[in-house]
Amino acid sequence: MALVNLEEVNFQHFQVGLTRTVQLLDAYVLFAVLWCPVWSKDPSDLISGETVLFPEVPPCKDDIFDAVFLNHVLPDTDVISESASLMSTHLYLTVSRLLKNQLPEGCHGTDNETIREESLTVPKHNRTSEKNFADFKQIRHFKPNASIEHIEATLMWVNNKTVEWLDLMDPEIKNAKITLAMKRAPEFISKWHERKIQLKQNRLEKLKEKETEKARKDAQSIKNKQTALDTLQMLNLQPCNTVQDVTEMLQKCRTENEKESALKAQITFYKFVIILPILNTNSFSFLKIKRNLIQNS
């Protein structure tokens, strides 16, 4: 019942107001209403059947409202109040954590004309960018040999509607624009070549970084192999190929520490030197081999 009251009675105006908000700066008023810790201690107003969050908007008295408040006698218990209190506390903490920038203490908590003017040019959706990616994919599909610069110029020509823009001009203004474009064409071509060289340089730097990283990994792999071989030589061991070889190796060891060191050396050798695709760890299970030795003794 408490959840129905919070959802059907008190949050309807908030949801409608949030969907009608044109800018995010206009939503700080709605968020500030939700940021109220009073109902965490005394939620009696929230379960009264009246709109508390937005008193100027009456609740929508539909079938759910009638079933909960008009044709139902509230039980004499504190369960509903406790539930409303817990939900109010959760709502307060959630709003404080996720909407701190839109609250009165946040950077967007007040109406700022400067930020409002700057946000006028922000697109309200991403349909344009998604369409550009779709067009880019289509051009790459039908013209796989086309360069990125060619596709970029094509998309700019289509999106800017240059032909329609020129056709709507007076002939004199149109000729003046074309003449100006022809004069500035060498400058743009020069900048385009510079950008192309820069892109190529960035690509070469990325390839060089990959080669350096690959060389580092190869050197580390060689070092690991050499370390594994040195460990076997230091322990005076030979690589084990079968379980029988492992069993014989462990029988020669005197203490548990020697057995554990020998097994670790063999596993390290197989990991870095032989590099098996799937290492059968059961063959090198110390506890399993130890149990077999005890049973055979």
Describe the structure.
The chain is an all-alpha fold. It has three domains: about 120 residues, no CATH class; about 90 residues, no CATH class; about 60 residues, no CATH class. It has 14 helices and no strands. α11 packs antiparallel against α13. The two termini are about 75 Å apart. About 5% of the residues have low confidence.
In short:
Keywords: Coiled coil, Hydrolase, Nuclease. 68% of the residues lie in helices and 0% in strands.
Annotation field: number of helices: 14
Oligomer: single chain
What's the count of strands?
Answer: 0
Mean pLDDT: 75
Report on the biggest sheet: none
Strand content: under 5%
First-residue to last-residue Cα separation: 73 Å
Q: Would you tell me the structural class of the helices and strands?
A: mainly alpha
Shape: flat
Radius of gyration: 37 Å
What keywords describe this structure?
297 residues, mainly alpha, 14 helices, 0% strand, flat, hydrolase
Ordered list of secondary-structure elements with their pairings:
Blueprint: H1 2-10, H2 12-20, H3 28-34, H4 38-41, H5 63-70, H6 79-98, H7 113-118, H8 127-142, H9 148-160, H10 162-167, H11 171-234, H12 243-252, H13 256-274, H14 286-296
Helix pairs in contact: 11-13
